[in-house]
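queue> pop job 88
queue> type: inverse folding (structure -> sequence)
queue> payload:
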């Protein structure tokens, strides 16, 4: 698969998608929009020479928001993708989850 068009033909690549309801997408995008706004706010704080600890406090809030976003995605992934694959006999999905958790929990 050296060609961009080959990606469209790859069955493995196609299974690495997730159908989400409009409500799920909206909730995730709302969270991301809030996080994006927080990051713009921190950028503004740096540009206006805000006090270091005030910036650190805001960055901590961003980290918490990102962790919360990941928790929502992870929960949904386990309840849908992992459960469905295991039911279909694809136990490899469990190892994929373990590997991902190890990366996230560094």
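queue> result:
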């Amino acid at each position: 698969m050296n060609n961009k068009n080959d990606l469209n033909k790859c069955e493995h690549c196609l299974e690495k998608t997730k159908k989400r309801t409009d409500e799920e997408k909206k909730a995730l995008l709302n969270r991301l929009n809030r996080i994006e706004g927080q990051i713009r706010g921190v950028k503004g704080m740096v540009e206006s020479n805000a006090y270091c600890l005030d910036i650190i406090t805001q960055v901590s809030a961003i980290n918490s928001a990102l962790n919360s976003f990941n928790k929502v995605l992870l929960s949904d992934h386990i309840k849908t993708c992992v459960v469905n694959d295991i039911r279909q006999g694809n136990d490899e999905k469990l190892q994929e989850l373990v590997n991902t958790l190890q990366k996230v929990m560094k």
